[in-house]
Amino acid sequence: MKVKIYKLIAVALTSAAWPAVALAQESVLVDTAIPDSFNRDRNVSVTERSRPDFDPLGFVSGAFTFFPQMQAGVGLSDNVFLTRGDKRSDGYAYFAPAVTMTSDLPRDEIRASARAVLGRWFTYDNRNQNTFDLRLLGRKDIGDAYSVTGEAQYARIYEQPNSGAIDPSTAVLSAFNRSYFAVRGRYAFGRVQATLGVDRTAFTFDDLVLANGTPINQDSRDQVQQRLTAELQYAVSPSLSVYGQVGGSKVEYSTLLFNVDNRDSKGLRVVGGVNFDLAGLMRGKLGAGYIKRDYDSPLYKDADGVSVEGQVEFFPTPLTTVGVAVARTLRDTNLALNTGAFFDNSVTARVDHELLVNLLLGATGEYRRQVYLGTPTRADYYRAGGTATYMANRFVVLRGELGWQRRTVNDNPNSRFSEFRGELSITFRR
């Protein structure tokens, strides 16, 4: 989802059906340890639906199909630096080339994508952003029951203002490089599916310069996260499965924070739930469990609590899809010396409607509550937005977006902000 933060810097790679919005920034998160697999092809959402007269054709070369695209856009924001006072308005423009590759192999799978966004603000040069995202995934099927998937990603990213890890006015200027490597083995036979995955994610943060010219070194945020996760699913019926998942993690920081102990820690997460795909009604995944983080240093209090994950899509009509997602996760923060973690509670809703076969309307709302452990600090984040996507033909797509976001902090008025933005873009694809 996209946050106000002048999303001018992160283009979303177009799918084979239609292009996604280009301006979304990412927070310091790692991808899901084991990707959701509730889709059983019993429902098709508005954004997934094939449109033969408007879908891009791509270029076929042997067993591979390439989908190139070029996106350009302009936008406006009424609060460039996401500050409470002294709001500054500005416009921006961006240029975003991208390409995806998919395989058409009888059994195995290879997918790859590359994207870049070159963003320039008209007045405030220190908000200019250049980002990229490279991804490669390969799956090898071994017999009828076994498969092994390898995945690698490397990206340069700008933070979201709702990440909760640092102050929003700093987050909009914060860039980092992220590398991600994962290997997953899967066994599926009859009603049973078992998955074991291991992954490693490394973050390297750039130094930044605040709007007032103050430099900030972010070496203390450089970190490596490693996880080992196992999941077992049992199909109660073709439409419904139950699952259990357990995962261990380790986080290591490379540099001291304010010359005090690092937030190195070990974690445990246990969750169970159901995933389902009921034809003509809904599909999704709902789970709950327990999460714990133990810090190596006594300076930080160990944290534990309830973990929640959920994503459900409803299909009231063939032309409308309604999605709701909920989550409760435990994350690290650099906002205070006396706390190492906070609980991030979020609920997001989205509606997509096909007004015409080539005109899609979308609306999104989000609420996020961040609770910083060991302190009275509580932050609330709100976001609302709407989009209109018009496919002139299979080669040209026009998109308009309006968005608003707001964040409040109960004990720090200076960290509060609100922003309104608008954007228009055009995408050329093959």
From TrEMBL:
Q: Which organism is it from?
A: Sphingobium olei
Q: Name one Pfam family in it.
A: BBP2_2
Q: What is this protein called?
A: Outer membrane beta-barrel protein
Q: What keywords are assigned to this protein?
A: Signal
The residues forming the signal peptide are 1-24
Classify the source by domain of life: Bacteria
